[in-house]
Design brief:
The chain is mostly beta strands. The chain has a single domain (6-161), classed as Lipocalin (Beta Barrel). The protein has helices spanning 6-10, 20-27, and strands at 31-40, 46-58, 63-70, 74-83, 88-95, 100-109, 112-119, 124-130, 136-144, 151-161. It has a ten-stranded antiparallel barrel.
Length: 164
């Protein structure tokens, strides 16, 4: 039996061939990206920042993992695992810098990709990928409004691929 390093055991060269078509939903983002961030506070103020995102195939190509960084604000990772029994993605967001964690389910939507779930406090979350092209996409993070009616925008990122 050949021993592998942690990097060799985690990273994969591409998607698991058994589900390659379904894995392309998030696999299209594999690579390195920059982002322009707008963070909307509960008081109505908006902070702006810059950052980076990195997506990679992991776990023998059965999942996509990413690292999202907004400089000085957060540094977290998402593990997105395709579940063929549900024909959906199980998603775990982890931000150890701010101690924010969320579970969601992801599926294709008419506009792109819709992720729905809850915060640890039980607040409904809706995260979307829209305006997807090979070179860019828009990501929005919303939470259920305090009134329980509608959604409040928390984060919006304009993301651009680095290189080719």
């Amino acid at each position: 039996m050949t021993r592998r390093s942690f990097d060799e055991a985690l990273h994969a060269p591409g998607p698991d061939p058994a589900h390659a078509a379904q894995l392309a939903l998030y696999g299209q983002f594999v690579g390195d990206w920059t982002l322009e961030a707008s963070m909307h506070e509960a008081d109505g103020s908006v902070r702006h920042g810059t950052g980076e995102v990195h997506f990679a195939w992991v776990l023998e190509g059965r999942a996509v993992q990413d690292v999202w960084i907004v400089h000085g604000v957060f540094y977290g990772t998402t593990l997105r695992i395709y579940d063929p029994g549900l024909d959906a993605w199980r998603i775990l967001w982890n931000d150890p810098m701010r101690q924010v964690f969320a579970r969601q389910m992801g599926r294709p939507s008419p506009e792109g990709i819709l992720q729905e779930g809850e915060s640890e406090e039980g607040v409904k979350l809706r995260w979307t990928f829209t305006e997807i092209t090979p070179r860019s996409f828009r990501w929005r993070g919303e939470r259920e409004a305090e009134s329980g009616k509608g959604w409040r925008l928390q984060h919006e990122y304009r993301v651009t691929r680095i290189g080719g």
